Recover the amino acids of this structure.
């Protein structure tokens, strides 16, 4: 029996959705444990694409999907996703999608505050996805959040909404000069959401415990990436939750001893959406080429992703923070035809060589990459299904990633399709 946590090792968009979808074949349950619809996870099956923001990426494999207590849920977005999937002929009944009664709701004022704050910050903005993620986690931490269990009791919901809206409107009107929100339309909309979602709401922790006791295999699907973690990332240019593997337990309601492996997803180069330090960023022709060939535009907001060479400093940091047991390298096909390739092995700060990721933002900003150069390849690798199908230079690049990170490579992805994958050693084997 194996229960695997999947995490992004960089700044998100590493291809977690593809790998979770592919691995879900051998899992019984797929659980999201943090983040919200700031995530955009892409699955491509039979040439058809599905981008999921809240529903775990096990949905196309017909597995039980769970949204854990650690996720912040915009119910309107979730219902929109259910409808979109139903349009494709896949009905998701309550038995297929379970939602934690303890998960917090994203409310309209969260979205509005997110927008107003970013507008107010101007040049200094974080570049959030504008989905209300930060303000929702903020209310959770200050004990003013509204959970699914509160939504299901109309009286409790109305009381909590009334109490909190008063304060939010004061802030929106007096600080930002924005229009206040009326409680009536919110109550009405959320009553309809409650009716629609009530059959899915449950004690996810309890259901997971029962499933684990029965020997079921669980995939825990992380969102964002290690360097967007609120504690360990490039603060303040981060998201508002812990994205590291340790949070899979808290955010799903299981114990650490239930986890048997942690698979880190690493894109063969680096990307970042939104503001914040990015030591290996390329603003030259190669950066533009990676963006174009890799179709590096956000799956949630459509913003162009900043691109750069692979950064082994990020990878080593990820290994330590997540306790990685394996790596999945994605988008290797995008590097085809680039000669030579570079990997950043350390940072230079003045006269000093730094091997660990600095916490100080100003120090990060003054770092420059130390690169090593590797030969590229020109062969189309997208049809490769075994390591032996790859050119020697591609294999050398993979081996170097394993060496520099100290983590074995379990999966190599050579295209967006579910089948465009080389399995070196299966995490569920
Ligand atoms: P996630 O947020 O980590 O799930 O990643 P996204 O879905 O936001 O972004 C990854 C993008 O790369 C998606 O468009 C995927 O379809 C695509 N993708 C995933 N793996 C590969 C790969 O090996 N090669 C190529 N060319 N595209 C890939
Ligand atoms: P997936 O799961 C890439 C980034 C935003 C912004 C910062 C804070 O698809 O990998 P937020 O809306 O969370 O308050 O924004 O975090 N960000 C992501 N970047 N992939 C994601 O998710 C992201 N989720 C948030 O661009 O810089
Ligand atoms: Mg994404």
């Amino acid at each position: 029996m194996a229960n695997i946590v999947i995490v992004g090792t960089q700044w998100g968009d590493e291809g977690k959705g593809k790998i979770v979808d592919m691995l879900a074949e051998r899992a019984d349950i797929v659980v999201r444990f943090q983040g919200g619809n700031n995530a955009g996870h892409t699955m491509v099956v039979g040439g058809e694409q599905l981008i999921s923001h809240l529903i775990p990426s096990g949905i196309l494999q017909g597995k039980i999907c769970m949204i854990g207590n650690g996720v912040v849920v915009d119910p309107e977005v979730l219902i929109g996703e259910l409808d979109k999937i139903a349009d494709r002929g896949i009905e998701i009944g309550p038995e297929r999608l379970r939602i934690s009664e303890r998960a917090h709701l994203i409310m309209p004022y969260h979205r509005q505050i997110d927008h107003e704050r970013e507008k107010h910050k101007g040049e200094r903005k974080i570049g959030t996805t504008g989905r209300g993620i930060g303000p929702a986690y903020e209310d959770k931490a200050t004990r003013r959040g509204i959970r699914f269990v509160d939504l299901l009791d109309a009286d409790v919901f109305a009381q909590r909404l009334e109490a909190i809206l008063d304060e939010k409107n004061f802030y929106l009107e007096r600080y930002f000069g924005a229009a206040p929100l009326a409680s009536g339309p919110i109550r009405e909309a959320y009553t309809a959401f409650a009716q629609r979602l009530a059959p899915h709401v449950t004690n996810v922790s309890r259901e997971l415990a029962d499933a684990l006791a029965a020997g079921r295999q669980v995939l825990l699907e992380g969102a964002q990436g290690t360097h967007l973690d609120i504690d360990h990332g490039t603060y303040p240019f981060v998201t508002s939750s812990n994205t590291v593997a340790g949070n899979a337990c808290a955010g799903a309601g299981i114990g650490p001893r239930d986890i048997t492996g942690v698979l880190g997803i690493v894109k063969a180069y680096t990307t970042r959406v939104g503001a914040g330090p990015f030591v290996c960023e390329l603003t030259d022709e190669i950066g533009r080429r990676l963006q174009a060939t890799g179709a590096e535009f956000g799956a949630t907001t459509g913003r162009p992703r900043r691109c750069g060479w692979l950064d082994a400093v990020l990878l080593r940091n990820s290994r330590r923070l997540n306790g990685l047991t394996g790596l999945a390298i994605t988008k290797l096909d995008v590097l085809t035809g680039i000669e030579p390739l570079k990997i950043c092995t350390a940072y230079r700060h003045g006269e000093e060589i730094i091997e660990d990721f600095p916490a100080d933002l100003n120090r990060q900003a003054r770092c420059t990459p130390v690169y090593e150069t590797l030969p590229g390849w020109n062969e189309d690798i997208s049809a490769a299904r075994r390591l032996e199908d790859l050119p020697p230079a591609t294999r050398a690049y993979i081996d170097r990633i394993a060496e520099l990170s100290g983590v074995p490579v379990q999966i190599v992805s050579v295209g967006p399709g579910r089948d465009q994958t080389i399995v070196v050693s299966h995490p569920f084997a």
The radius of gyration is 22 Å. Residues 12-13, 39-41, 299 surround magnesium ion (ligand 3) (CB under 6 Å). The chain has a mean pLDDT of 97.
